[in-house]
Design a protein that fits this description.
7 strands, elongated, alpha/beta, 12 helices, 7-stranded mixed beta sheet
Length: about 300
């Protein structure tokens, strides 16, 4: 039954990847990726997923592979990411780099495509953990020189900041009354950082989703959550309009110095961005969505309800 469940999950995820391909892959050239065959003697579902991840590119020669083939491979590979644990995901990215670095041009082509599909904020295949593991391996590859690595080194620095389980980077902010404060000054059991541009439509849509998040709003009224709306783009007039259309319970602040973006304190390549923090300002969720925050909070409440009270 367990093997059947994993197989069905794989089929569903692979179908989702094909749908994503239709949205992202160019229609000019369609290719079939040369998939590997998992040995029959490997029967454990997790072991089969590990083998597939680490041998995914065995049938590809990066010295002769076309861009369309590598592109298709990344799209297909993304479909199995949910089947891989964090350790196997990293080892799969390491295996990909080792295979690709037999050709410097092939490795650079793969990294460029990975930037688009795994790190592009508009990509349905966005996977920060996979891309971070890929860069960690690529940046120690002897196939690339310093100039080749420079743009990816900058990306990795940003990716390594504010990860889940780490302390959120503190920053200065201007309050509505003009006074100054820091993120660390905010006292709340849980905080939601909402980075936005005041005149951006997507940011306004995210604001609406947050206002419709029933559990978030209930906990906010009960004092369990503080939503910190941080304006990082837009003039004061646009900020005032955005505030006026937002719930009065939110804490509205302004990045008057512009350092949050200019110094890359947070990954704000596109806006909006949401982070969920605990009382000590440790990151619980990074680059998340209102729905994911709701689900996370439900799981925390359910877990706490299942723990018997101490006598």
């Amino acid at each position: 039954m367990k093997r059947l469940f994993v197989l069905l999950t794989f089929i569903i995820l692979f179908s989702q990847a094909l749908m994503a391909q239709e949205q992202t892959a160019p229609a000019a050239e369609k290719v079939t990726f040369p998939m590997v065959t998992v040995p029959d003697e490997i029967t454990d579902p997790q072991a089969r997923a590990k083998y597939l991840g680490e041998h995914f590119w065995d049938n590809v020669d990066f010295a002769t592979a076309s861009e369309a083939l590598v592109e298709q491979g990344l799209i297909d590979m993304a479909s199995i990411f949910p089947l891989l644990n964090s350790e196997t995901l990293i080892s799969s990215m390491t295996a990909l780099v080792k295979k690709a670095e037999t050709s410097k041009e092939g490795l650079l082509m793969m990294l460029s495509l990975a930037d688009k599909y795994l790190y592009g904020t508009a990509s349905p295949l966005y996977n920060e953990a996979a891309y971070r593991g890929l860069l960690q391996s690529a940046l120690i590859s002897k196939a690339l020189n310093k100039a080749d690595k420079e743009p990816y080194q900058k990306q990795l620095v940003i990716l390594e900041m504010n990860n889940e389980g780490s302390a959120a980077v503190d920053f200065d902010m201007q309050l509505v009354d003009g006074s100054k404060a820091k993120l660390s000054d905010i006292e709340a059991p849980v905080s939601i950082l909402f980075f936005y541009a005041a005149d951006n439509l997507d940011c306004k849509l995210q604001r609406f989703r947050l206002t419709q998040a029933r559990l978030v709003n209930y906990l906010q009224r009960a004092g369990g959550i503080k939503i910190v709306a941080v304006c990082v783009e837009g003039d004061k007039a646009a900020w005032e309009k955005f505030r006026a259309d937002s719930p009065k319970e939110w804490l509205h602040v302004f990045d008057a110095s512009g350092k949050i973006k200019s110094e890359n304190l947070y990954d704000l390549r596109t806006l909006p961005r949401l982070y969920l923090l605990d009382e000590q300002k440790t990151v619980l969720l990074k680059n998340t969505k209102a729905d994911d925050i709701e689900q996370y909070l439900v799981q925390i409440i359910q877990a706490s309800d299942s723990v018997p009270a101490s006598e």
